[in-house]
Amino acid sequence: MxxxxxxxxxxKRIIAARNRALALVLLALVxxxxxxxxxxxxx
Amino acid sequence: xxxAPALSRGPAWGYGTGPMTVPPDSGALRAALARPADWRDxxxxxxxxxxxxxxxxxxxxxxxAPGHINPVLGxxxxxxxxxxxxxxxxxxQWWEAEIDAGMKRxxxxxxxAGRMSRDSARDFGVGLSAASVMVMGLxxxxxxxxxxxxxxxxxxxxxTIWLKxxxxxxxxxxxxxxxxxxxxxxxxxxxxVSLMAVVLFAIIFIWTPxxxxxxxxxxxxxxxxxxxxxxxxxxxxxxxxxxxxxYAVVLAPVSLLPWWIGGAGAVYGVCAGVLSAVFLALSVRxxxxxxxxxxDAMKPEKQLFAYSILYLFVLFGALVADRWIExxxxx
Lengths: 43, 331
Known about the structure:
Number of strands of chain A: 0
Largest sheet of chain B: none
Order of helices and strands of chain A: H
Mean pLDDT of chain B: 87
CATH superfamily of the largest domain in chain B: UbiA prenyltransferase
Structural class of chain A: mainly alpha
Largest sheet of chain A: none
Shape of chain A: rod-shaped
Distance between the termini of chain A: 54 Å
Radius of gyration of chain A: 18 Å
Order of helices and strands of chain B: HHHHHHHHHHHHHHH
CATH class of the largest domain in chain B: Mainly Alpha
Strand content of chain B: under 5%
Oligomer: heterodimer
């Protein structure tokens, strides 16, 4: 089954939500890499 | 609104005759090109429910190992296992988009439903897979990264592309892909592959056929429709039932191996014995059934499938509990 066509507003909302999710993931990765670096330096 | 694209795959179970061609993007899949995929669709592409079992067994492998790993690195290792599994799942759905469109159980996934382009799924899968292996190698170790890479290739290429459309033994050999996580967890904690890591691999390897064939017995019409040579479709129900029973018989002693080789204590041994006895009892009920009914009459098979998931969770949980008890006693 194919999803119905999107309105421009819906398209914008989906892209904005996706960008927010991506930003959160990237931020989490920065924090994780920082923590890994600290741990690795201590070991 | 159009329906899912018609399948143009060849006849079922032509194993040994070469690859079955997957038609190029068509219909619903091409329509998705103009539509931006929601973040939830990307998440769905990673098969979160399957991932939960992968995370759990990987975590148990790590916690049951005799080595010590820094919590941050332990978290990173499990994250890499999860991301790697997600990447492999995305690649699986990219390759099987047309097949998924033909099955009731999978037709609402992002690709067959037309909510995402096929290229996005492929790029997402490759990106996650590569990132997980790189981070695992840099943060944890290259042996763990190598096993993770092998498990991803095993699932996405050996199982999905090569075995699944060719042979009814697909899930037997392909089951190895799901057996790697505890081994990766173990290697992440200890830095090497020991006999216990191989035994944990063997437990999941032997557990997979009865688990999956119990499911295949009650969704076999779906598999037959899309030409996937699952055992019940090719060899028939009686043969599948006998094989489920056979694997359950083998699983019982294999599940006790960690105790016999001294890798786990009595707590694990007792749990494994009881869990495997119940598994065997449910398998006997399925294995000795001669009358096959319609989907609603598949209660024993559904019970075995549900119990098999519980079995693995509790068995690996017992392994960790046993290790913690031992550490508590002996320091």
